[in-house]
């Protein structure tokens, strides 16, 4: 049971870092059009699109990735609480 918890916990942690890297790629021209940028886009955009439906960008700033990372953080906390009952 603990190995399943650790697998899910670290998967969410890695996914959070992938979103952060994807956000920083927008600061560099052409980075998202590279093969690594397109791969990260296919991984991150479906999750980020959920939040972009509800949180519109303010001017040139998109706050939806920040909210998405917070939701992942709280999901990791909830995962720990859920598995805490079983371990």
UniProtKB/TrEMBL annotation:
Keywords: Membrane, Transmembrane, Transmembrane helix. InterPro entries: CCB3/YggT (IPR003425). GO terms for cellular component: membrane. The keyword Signal does not apply. The chain crosses the membrane at residues 7-28, 66-86. Pfam families: CCB3_YggT. The keyword ATP-binding does not apply. Belongs to the YggT family. This is Membrane protein. It comes from Compostibacillus humi.
């Amino acid at each position: 049971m603990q190995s399943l918890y650790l697998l899910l916990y670290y998967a969410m942690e890695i996914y959070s870092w992938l979103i952060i890297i994807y956000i920083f790629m927008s600061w560099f021209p052409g980075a998202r059009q590279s093969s690594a940028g397109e791969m990260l886009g296919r991984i991150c955009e479906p999750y980020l699109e959920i939040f972009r439906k509800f949180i519109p960008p303010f001017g040139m700033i998109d706050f939806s990735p920040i909210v998405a990372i917070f939701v992942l953080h709280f999901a990791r906390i909830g995962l720990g609480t859920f598995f805490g009952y079983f371990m």
